[in-house]
């Protein structure tokens, strides 16, 4: 009868620190990789991950762990100053996905606002819950727009709540550009529950869902999950990691990487 190798307690803390360092550096790690590299059993690694999650040094997932990033949500204006070059490239690539005559939903968020700023002479119907997007497209030639009603959420510059959700059920769009602040193999996530509700409703009403996202958000999970990757048709980014490439392949997501 085989026996399980016994863990040596003296090395437990050193091993956990190594796990925390790997997750912090890579953004995520798989259980099988830790078992192989550390030479201990799966139950031992699972206990380590449970303890590290308790300390908020990582977050457990099915089959591994991801980096834990506790962060304060930044207002939409300040977010616009981050990763500007990447966001401009992503916005242009997203505009190229729009076919003249289509109906388009533009979500709140700085990258999506970049899409709105270049919509000229495309003969499109724009639906949005974002105040910034509405201002940007108001005078664009060839662009008809509808701003849904609802409660103003100042931090996101968006309209949310029951009225906004009810309004969205009256529309169907050809393509929806949905922003997110986190991406893992479990799906896309955001910081606010009301924003997540809007995004889920839009996804249900869209024939095609595109997520524009710069690579700084890869491997992180924000407060609330919006949807699984199975609900996303395309991700547009400026750089793809091996993990993101694999996730997209596994969930049949078209990954488009733009270059400057």
From TrEMBL:
Swiss-Prot/TrEMBL keywords: DNA-binding, Transcription, Transcription regulation
Q: Which residues form the HTH deoR-type domain?
A: 12-67
Name any one GO molecular function: DNA-binding transcription factor activity
Q: Which domain of life is it from?
A: Bacteria
One short Pfam family name for this protein?
A: HTH_DeoR
Name recorded for this polypeptide: DeoR family transcriptional regulator
Supply the source organism for this entry.
Answer: Umezawaea tangerina
Q: What is the lineage of its organism?
A: Bacteria, Bacillati, Actinomycetota, Actinomycetes, Pseudonocardiales
């Amino acid at each position: 009868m085989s026996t399980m190798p016994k863990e040596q307690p003296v090395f437990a803390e050193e091993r956990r620190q190594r796990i925390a360092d790997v997750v912090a550096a890579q953004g995520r790690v798989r259980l099988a990789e830790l078992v192989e590299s550390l030479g201990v059993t799966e139950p031992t690694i699972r206990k380590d991950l449970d303890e590290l999650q308790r300390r908020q040094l990582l977050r457990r997932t099915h089959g591994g762990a991801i980096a834990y990033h506790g962060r304060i949500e930044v207002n939409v204006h300040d977010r616009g100053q981050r990763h500007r070059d990447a966001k401009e490239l992503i916005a242009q690539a997203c505009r190229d996905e729009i076919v003249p005559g289509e109906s388009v939903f533009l979500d709140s968020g700085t990258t999506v606002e970049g899409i709105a700023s270049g919509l000229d002479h495309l003969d499109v119907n724009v639906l949005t819950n974002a105040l910034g997007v509405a201002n940007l497209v108001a005078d664009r030639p060839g662009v008809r727009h509808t701003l849904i009603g609802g409660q103003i959420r100042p931090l996101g510059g968006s309209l949310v709540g029951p009225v906004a959700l009810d309004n969205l059920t009256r529309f169907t769009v050809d393509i929806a550009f949905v922003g997110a602040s986190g991406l893992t193999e479990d799906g896309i996530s955001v910081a606010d529950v009301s924003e997540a509700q809007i995004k889920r409703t839009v996804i249900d009403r869209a024939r095609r869902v595109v997520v524009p996202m710069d690579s700084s958000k890869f491997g992180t999970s924000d407060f609330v999950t919006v949807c699984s990757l199975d609900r996303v048709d395309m991700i547009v980014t400026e750089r793809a990691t091996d993990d993101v490439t694999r996730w997209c392949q596994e969930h049949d997501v078209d990954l488009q990487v733009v270059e400057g």
